[in-house]
Fold these 2 entries.
Entry 1:
Amino acid sequence: MSPKNAFYAQSGGVTAVINASACGVIETARKHTDKIANVYAGRNGIIGALTEDLIDTSQESDADIAALRHTPSGAFGSCRHKLKGLDESKAEYERLIEVFKAHNIGYFFYNGGGDSQDTSHKVSQIGEKLGYPITCVGIPKTVDNDLPITDNCPGFGSVAKYVAVSIREASFDVASMAKTSTKIFVMEVMGRHAGWIAAAGGLACEKEGDAPHIILFPEVTFNQEKFLAKVDHAVKTYGYCSIVVSEGVRNTEGQFLAEAGGKDAFGHAQLGGVAPVVAQLVKDNLGYKYHWAVADYLQRSARHIASKTDVDQAYELGKAAVELAIAGNNAVMPTVDRVSDEPYEWKIGHANLADVANVEKMMPAEYISEDGFGITDACRRYLQPLIQGEDYPPYKNGLPQYVTLKNAGVPKKLDTTFEIKK
Amino acid sequence: MSPKNAFYAQSGGVTAVINASACGVIETARKHTDKIANVYAGRNGIIGALTEDLIDTSQESDADIAALRHTPSGAFGSCRHKLKGLDESKAEYERLIEVFKAHNIGYFFYNGGGDSQDTSHKVSQIGEKLGYPITCVGIPKTVDNDLPITDNCPGFGSVAKYVAVSIREASFDVASMAKTSTKIFVMEVMGRHAGWIAAAGGLACEKEGDAPHIILFPEVTFNQEKFLAKVDHAVKTYGYCSIVVSEGVRNTEGQFLAEAGGKDAFGHAQLGGVAPVVAQLVKDNLGYKYHWAVADYLQRSARHIASKTDVDQAYELGKAAVELAIAGNNAVMPTVDRVSDEPYEWKIGHANLADVANVEKMMPAEYISEDGFGITDACRRYLQPLIQGEDYPPYKNGLPQYVTLKNAGVPKKLDTTFEIKK
């Protein structure tokens, strides 16, 4: 059988290590040219497939592909376009087949989170249901760490490390100043539905009194009275109070705390900004001077402080995806399987996309401490290995050297266009 | 002459490298026990001297003192207490003499910014004016980079590196998502009066189209129309727009932009939060989806991504302070003297505190590009060497290992107390 081309796309919010998965896919494919002729990447994710806007990765040098391993963001562009069911979005699936057929694409690699694995699952069915045989393998990626079956999700470990390192550093700063100045520090992190990222801040606390003293999880309804009492206790006991707050924290009415405080100066209520609300609450009730930070994209793009474990896993999952595909596996996703906590050992396994699609892994209740403001030992055992190791990018002129690919287009073969529905 | 003790204190906002200067002071003093018997650190800065709350650094191991070199924050605590003139604050200077006399202190090392060098200068005069001879040496430190004579100030280079690295990483992220999602990213950085830190973001832009596309300086009055036109141009040309904004940006009425937007939900106007104001302005006028980050303390405590140049200079300035003192120099401050830009060479010099006190070094007008939104080649030549080199701290369990000293108190010798006036 003559080799087919592969389609690879990045989907959803990008991370510090999604390009490491891309690197694993392309480097592995280049070793198997008897099976995979070329890897075409979707420009801006699946939109690139639908609009026949494909990137010819064979025009990138081996060195540039290798540099993807240490480059954050999505090198080919990503998007948040979600394909619905085969019946509902039949035109989109038929268009995919039209483009795949025109470019002799026999493999589909989709690198993303929950929605993307659902899409992968649907694409894996087009062989049987729409008569276009294709080998479809999902590659996990999400800072939200909410995919099932896999022990963890690439991208999460590096955000976790960034958050733990950052809250430790800023807390050292506050501790120095607390006697006569700032006593409260609030750092806002991502996580609208699950507190995985906020929980990672807890790793910085290794012994009694260490920061952070309080973590506010989306899983725990905000209790102002208990919170203020805990803040006051920390200030009186340790001299200061360091707080990690998840953007998704809600009040007893179920509103995001970030919005419940009221509208901003322009009358808008956009999520992102719970840190100032929490800080002001402390000031108003306890009178302590505060500082706050919102890490936003800095946390998920911080390749300079990426977890080596995370980078290694991201690469290996990309590599495994190609190996699974050329071995004839359809509708699967490679996974990280934990062998042991300490010493930490892991291996690559795989799951059926049917079991992954539409299942969201929440943080177990037993990972949150009884008072709702910290993490348990079980949580620490789970999280600790994921931030292990440093994997520094190369520097020039004091700055990390991240690659920007040529991203040359594959000449179009179709004379049709396709309009993306929003 | 039998050796005297030295007093060392950290002052003002702490940095990623002020402890490297402390390390230089203490390690060097330990090599000159014929001149300096012991180094007593002020607990929480000068307040420790006034309240006779001294820390006995001889109780710290050589290994822990060495670890100060890679530990951010102020290991002995800092404060923002400013001593006024010798006449106005005579009681405070007399109290200092009382404490110094009781503890046989003959050297005074004060590690801080402009106000602290002014204090150092005043303390240097107590020999002549109040009859207590003391050798007084200031050690420069400030992320604001606004001390005169010295080429740059320890602490600044590491913030500069953090800001340049962070805006590069976050901008890679935004570039990936811009086609269908976030098009605007705004990162707020420190700098109420001078744009040095914001300017450092410009180092990430190495060629046409690179982020950041816009820098908003406190030195340049905010022009909404020109700003929005530039944002729109960037989005239309590069697909996205990445913005670094200094917390000190002001509008045509001279108000901080962060405050001019209105009060927050609680009716307060606390500085810190210009990023959301700028982002919302873009959304309201151009409709682009945005994200924003406020780095706050993360930027000045980010020892994990410190500039090696900065760490080296901080250490050498601490060392030089001791060497200047034991050579009999009073009322001086060691400086970084630039020998050449490229290859970057520097040496340690020194200035008279009389020439340092009350002089603020502003950013030269020729460092800001003609349109007011970027940096010039001259600025780049100045800034580039300051972020050179990485100096990673040691890690354990995936986290940087920062030292917390024992900070044992020196037994009090006085039966008097002193009340600090606020």
Entry 2:
Amino acid sequence: MKLSILFGGASYEHEISIVSAITVKGKLDSFDLSYIFCDQDHTFYNIPEDKMKAKVFSSGEYKKLPILELNRDGFTQKKFFGSKSIDGIVLNLIHGGDGEDGSIAALLDFYSINFIGPRKEASVFSFDKEYTKWLASSLAVKTLQYAVVTRDDNKELAYPCIIKPACLGSSIGVSIVKSEDELEYALDVAFEFDSRVVVEPFIENVKEYNLAGCLTKKGMQFSIVEEPNKEEFLDFDKKYMDFSRSEQVLKADISDELVQKMRDTFEKIYRGHFEGALIRCDFFVINNTVYLNEINPIPGSMANYLFEDFELLISDLASSLPRLKRPSVNYQYIHNISKAKGK
Amino acid sequence: MKLSILFGGASYEHEISIVSAITVKGKLDSFDLSYIFCDQDHTFYNIPEDKMKAKVFSSGEYKKLPILELNRDGFTQKKFFGSKSIDGIVLNLIHGGDGEDGSIAALLDFYSINFIGPRKEASVFSFDKEYTKWLASSLAVKTLQYAVVTRDDNKELAYPCIIKPACLGSSIGVSIVKSEDELEYALDVAFEFDSRVVVEPFIENVKEYNLAGCLTKKGMQFSIVEEPNKEEFLDFDKKYMDFSRSEQVLKADISDELVQKMRDTFEKIYRGHFEGALIRCDFFVINNTVYLNEINPIPGSMANYLFEDFELLISDLASSLPRLKRPSVNYQYIHNISKAKGK
């Protein structure tokens, strides 16, 4: 099966997307893979397999590699005579901005390119932590209480709390604030990245679990539930390393009943929104109740380490992608009006 | 000032976008205008001014006109030697799908093309009537009660009610249902267009008002408030004619206090979401309370008929567009890790 890994992007998570792509490359041996790199200027490059090394990108060496145009023929490389398109399904592995905010989804859909990844609307809801709350609330999925704070607000907050820019992943700009005198600095950091920040209570030693999955023709496919290793919370460096994970992990030591609760919550979030994507939901469990913390619609290295047979899963998902229905235009109204005018 | 009117799109409102573009053309005499047509296959064409006639599109004659590529250089026409880009700001006048669902916004933003029109996130919220409710609710803006119904639902509804596909404008697929025996047919019609329908109470003779506006460097700019001519509600044929309006209308005979209430509600919706767009909000007024009915982020013919000096407004808006901040990538983490590995 032909599959093109699309990675990079003009995003704070550009580098971890590169790491993710290199990791996923090693997990999809049976696929006929291509690699499409999107640089920070939104130029696409066709990367040969032997150039899939972090240094090719950090050194700028990639700029000597063939440029790809994106148009109705897909990702297309100009040749001396004519041009050649990269066939097959695209795996959107651009983390953060571009990839997870709905831009790449809109581009691929616009040019009728089949892809694995969240669609535009689902991306808008998962990328913004406030909008995720709205989505969850409409589905009766519990989340922690929250407040949204902008620069001019003067909100009374309770401590300890956790402060997150509304629209960033990978812990960028996130701080735990234990008392009011730590607040200003934490807000300054967060406002570097977004004009809105989401504030939630910080619950020490809260149980945290990750569950990944997707819908295929075989039905909902779930990963094992992992209890992530955590210190207070993962900072960017640690998360960065996290994106290169490729060893399967042990499943969390929790009851079948709790696993089922998480699966049910996952499915509520997924259906009707995330079809076509392999997502990871991060949950909190408090008094045996499941709370949605975050939706990762393009999890680091596609959460390969949570699945027993990752290749089979990607292959099943690739053959279960939603197709856009496009209205056909017949110019009925213009014809009628022209007739009525006698023209 | 150079301005390119982008119109057409793979949308149920393709034809009214053509009508809208022809109307707006007649209202922007002092601009240096270009015309970019997006056909239903997502090919872009450069339309000379003398070809801006409905029949050029309905007859397929447009297919003989020059094709435009969209890439980092903007909309670009290949010439015998080299290529030429269309400069200036784009006015997104694609109604319905593509234009109002965030796809075109994503494309233009991706290629750093400055444009008048709603951004991706704002589009997702205004295009879907359920999501509009979520947005309004988060801003303490009142809307009518509603239920969301899918094909498998068996919801108890109260009559009379109005049934709308979640994601279409221009009254397509909308029905008023006066009793249960009319329900099935109305739902069948609506489900032709979307898998979710929004049901609201139908309030006979409810007062309806339209207000358009935008944020420019001069502050919030509002149109007059219009009380639209309505029969039970506008069907598609009438709305179609509505998109060709170019005569300024009379303002509604209502109190200054009510106008102010609508402006306040408009501003709540607009700020933080619709910057860069000229939008029209359609309100209901019940017992002197303002309810948001719909947000039209690309109103028919840009609601030119509601403004005293439409050209000045567009010129002000064009010089007040939001700019995307793009993160710069410095490969700090890859460099650090390479160093740590001694490579």
